[in-house]
């Protein structure tokens, strides 16, 4: 997500994370685990006949939205079958309540769809058929233009006044808006092309998962998946997407979950040791997304190297608060007195740490568990700052008196493509082909559609 956006944890404000690090997918925490299995993934050959659509959730828990952009929109009931459609003048106001969804347009026309009905808003040519002419005729939702059409889905059973908003579009229309929020605008064209391939692959993999699970959307527009800012006129982003149309990362013919993050610091992480091992995540065992020694070029990144000093009691309290939700044995931990690597991957990056308290009891935590818990929000403590934040799971720790000093490498989870390395490699004259071989060793880039 350059100096991108990503996965710090609930302790960091989303606006801060996105501004600084447009890259990394957020690490999810669960308690279940699985042994190391053979990795799985969808076979790419024959998976797509044409460019697939992707459904992106752009808002959740709203009580109202304003939709503008074209002169007209068609508002209709979502779902299959024959439905009535209403042509309405923009701007329109959409709200929801116990009786259903209400849409009122600029002329005062008002339409209500009864309880239980989700609705779609579609760019119109001025007739009730409501066809989407092109990505340049974008709907604007709360001031942000989006290609495709919007769907309003209230939480009918829980809170009918609260609804989510998603937008559906061809994935090639989606990607430019990802690139402009994941990379700096003055970065090289080759970096944008590498990012386009990684982002396309990640989105299609998550789309496959989402539809297999019956979810109402494919990806979030935040660093939970990848940041998407809507339609963009960026020349480099649009050209990079066009130049790599349909290209995805595969291994043995199967679609890879092409993770990426801001700064690896010279040592990539392993997917199987970064995300929890639970049934349905066997894709994280793909060989090409494990940490292997490779060249790196992220020395110019803001957080290539960093330090953070924390009070030992405050740090211990944050770890215990996180543990109460995700790892209950940590709640018995007292003051942290030592943190040492417990295991490392082939690149030398720690997979896990052994945290020892002042009673001599040791707790093993994965690198991402420790990073996330160290940054965990406490209501009665000062917020985590740029200076105090633990930026990655790759660090050395010194404990002295009542202070804990982290000396670390990189920012983000470190799996797969490093965006700052992609920038540095491009400066050295690398093309996307050479970059992808480095970031996903053993994988192949193929045309999916």
In whole angstroms, the N-to-C terminal distance is 25 Å
Tell me the β content: 25-35%
Shape by Cα distribution: globular
Q: Major sheet: size, sense and barrel closure?
A: 7 strands, mixed
Number of strands: 24
| Portion in helices | 10-25%
Radius of gyration computed on alpha carbons? 23 Å
Structural class: alpha+beta
- Poorly predicted runs are 1-22, 132-136
Strand order of the largest sheet: 4-3-8-11-12-1-13
- Average per-residue pLDDT, rounded, comes to 90
Number of helices: 9
What does this structure look like?
- With 449 residues, this protein is α+β, with helices and mostly antiparallel strands.
- Helix content is 22%, strand content 29%.
- It contains nine helices and 24 strands.
- Strands 4-3-8-11-12-1-13 form a seven-stranded mixed beta sheet.
- The chain is globular, with a radius of gyration of 23 Å.
- It starts with 13 loop residues before the first helix and ends with a strand.
Keywords, please?
449 residues; 24 strands; alpha+beta; 6-stranded antiparallel sheet
């Amino acid at each position: 997500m350059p100096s991108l956006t990503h996965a710090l944890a609930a302790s960091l404000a989303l606006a801060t994370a996105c501004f600084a690090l447009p890259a990394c997918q957020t690490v999810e925490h669960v308690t279940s685990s699985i042994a190391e299995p053979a990795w799985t993934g969808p076979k790419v050959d024959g998976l797509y006949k044409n460019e697939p659509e992707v459904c992106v959730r752009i808002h959740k828990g709203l009580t109202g939205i304003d939709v503008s952009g074209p002169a007209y929109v068609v508002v209709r009931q979502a779902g299959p079958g024959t439905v009535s459609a209403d042509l309405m003048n923009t701007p329109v106001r959409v709200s929801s309540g116990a009786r259903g969804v209400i849409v009122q347009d600029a002329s005062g026309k008002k339409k209500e769809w009864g309880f239980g009905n989700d609705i779609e808003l579609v760019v119109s040519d001025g007739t009730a058929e409501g066809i989407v002419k092109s990505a340049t005729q974008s709907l604007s939702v709360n001031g942000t233009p989006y290609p495709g059409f919007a769907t309003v889905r209230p939480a009918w059973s829980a809170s009918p006044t609260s609804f989510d908003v998603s937008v559906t579009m061809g994935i090639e229309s989606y990607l430019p808006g990802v690139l402009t929020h994941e990379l700096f605008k003055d970065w090289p064209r080759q970096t944008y092309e590498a990012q386009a391939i990684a982002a396309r692959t990640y989105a299609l993999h998550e789309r496959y998962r989402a539809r297999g699970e019956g979810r109402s959307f494919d990806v979030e527009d935040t660093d939970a998946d990848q940041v998407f800012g809507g339609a963009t006129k960026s020349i480099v982003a649009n050209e990079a997407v066009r130049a790599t149309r349909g290209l995805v990362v595969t291994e043995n013919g199967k679609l890879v979950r092409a993770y990426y993050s801001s700064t690896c610091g010279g040592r990539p992480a392993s997917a199987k040791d970064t995300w929890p091992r639970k049934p349905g995540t066997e894709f994280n065992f793909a060989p090409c997304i494990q940490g292997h020694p490779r060249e790196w070029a992220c020395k110019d990144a803001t957080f290539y190297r960093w330090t953070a000093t924390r009070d030992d009691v405050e740090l211990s309290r944050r770890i215990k608060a996180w543990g109460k939700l995700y790892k209950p044995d940590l709640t018995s931990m007292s003051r942290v007195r030592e943190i040492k690597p417990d295991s490392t991957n082939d690149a030398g990056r720690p997979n896990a740490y052994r945290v020892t308290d002042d009673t001599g009891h040791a707790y093993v935590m994965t690198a991402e568990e420790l990073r996330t818990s160290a940054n965990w929000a406490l209501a009665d403590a000062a917020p985590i700052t740029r200076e105090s934040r633990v930026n990655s799971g790759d660090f050395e720790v010194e404990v002295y008196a009542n202070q804990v000093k982290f000396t670390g490498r990189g920012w983000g989870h470190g799996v797969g493509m490093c965006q700052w390395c992609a920038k540095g490699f491009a400066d050295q004259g690398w093309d996307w082909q050479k970059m992808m071989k480095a970031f996903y060793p053993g994988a192949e880039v193929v045309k999916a559609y």
